[in-house]
Specification:
This protein is an alpha+beta fold. It is built from 10 helices and 8 strands. The protein starts with a helix and ends in a 6-residue tail after the last strand.
């Protein structure tokens, strides 16, 4: 053991050695040229591995990163040898310099040994242009996939809308057929002969068709009472006026009110104001509470009116159909100066004030 310690002491002994500066005859220009160059090279050697280390820290996913860490160790040891060369200009610690060079040699040998077998694998990595082309191809495929998925979603939404439209059409057709059936039965009940039935039935179907045309324009969402009144009464070519705010009517209620207006107009032509050169005024106003609306059909200027002895289709439609549909009440006042029909109903989803602009 003593021999080993003596050998170590002898290896690190520097008292018999001279610093490297003696070889340069202590010429300042040579000393400082060597020192400055080695310091700059050492700093550069330290800067390079620091940059590589920062890169590897930020990019832990880099393949073969362990080889770069070997380069870091090798380059830092090379930098230390240059700093040691500066030290030995004044201090003859050549044993430490020798050990440092041994470490550097081992690091360089291991790095070289690892690098050559790794070269084929590194060479097989795709080039940046190839990677970009693959990325572009992938992005294009993703865009096409998204477009295809969007098309599929749109097709499903279209199928859903189509089914809803077919269901709605089926519902409308059933309601319309039920209305036609009811009109036919009620008209037949009040007709004296087939000729009278035909005329009344066709007139009522035309009134129903007029209301349907108006609802189609609104896509069966709702209807305007002002527009419904215009569509029902305009073709008679006789004087009438609408006053007060407009009302928004649910589609089923619009059909019922359209038929009711037709019955009132037909009665006015046959027996009321329009039979004697008079006029009709439709007045709409909210009640004092604002929770209900009042629609008044007022005939004036025609020949004297007398109340009918029975209840025809129009009376039953108003007093039962309209009142039941609205959840309100309908009164028919057969005044000598003309019929006054008052429809009063609570504001609801079926009937609501739309504007407050007077006609």
């Amino acid at each position: 053991m003593e021999q080993v310690l003596n050998a170590v002491r002898a290896f690190f002994a520097s008292s018999t050695l001279s610093p490297h500066g003696i070889c340069l005859l202590w010429r300042p220009e040579l000393i400082w040229t060597h020192a400055t160059s080695d310091i700059v090279i050492g700093l550069a050697y330290f800067s390079i591995p620091l940059a590589i280390s920062a890169f590897l820290y930020q990019r832990p996913d880099v393949k073969f990163g362990w080889v770069l860490w070997m380069f870091v160790a090798f380059i830092m040891l090379c930098g230390l040898t240059h700093f040691m060369a500066v030290w030995t200009l004044w201090k003859p610690d050549y044993a430490f310099e020798a050990l440092l060079k041994v470490a550097t040699a081992i690091a360089s040998l291991l790095t070289a040994a690892a690098l050559w077998p790794l070269l084929p694998k590194v060479s097989a990595l795709p080039a940046a242009a190839t990677l970009q082309a693959r990325i572009d191809e992938r992005d294009k495929a993703l865009m096409e996939l998204r477009a295809a998925m969007a098309t599929m979603v749109e097709m499903r939404e279209h199928e859903t809308r189509q089914k809803l439209l077919l269901d709605e059409l089926n519902h409308r057709v059933k309601n319309t057929l039920a209305s036609v059936q009811s009109i036919a039965a009620q008209t037949l009940r009040g007709a004296n002969d087939i000729g009278e039935f035909k005329i009344s039935f066709v007139d009522r179907l035309m009134a129903l068709s007029s209301t349907h045309d108006l609802l189609v324009k609104r896509e069966w969402a709702n209807a305007s009472l002002r527009e419904l009144t215009e569509a029902t009464l305009r073709h008679y070519g006789l004087p009438f006026a609408y006053a007060g705010p407009d009302l928004r009517l649910q589609s089923n209620l619009a059909v019922t009110l359209g038929m009711a207006l037709h019955e009132l107009a037909t009665n006015a032509v046959k027996y009321g104001a329009w039979a004697g050169g008079g006029r009709i005024d439709i007045e709409v106003a909210p009640t004092q509470s604002g929770r209900a609306v009042r629609i008044v059909w007022r005939e004036s200027g025609g020949r004297p009116v007398t109340a009918p002895t029975g209840h025809g289709f129009g009376s039953r439609l108003l007093e039962q159909g309209v009142a039941g549909e609205l959840g309100g009440k309908v009164t028919l006042d057969w005044r000598p100066e003309g019929l006054v029909c008052v429809i009063e109903a609570p504001v609801s989803e079926k009937i609501a004030l739309e504007t407050a602009t007077a006609a």
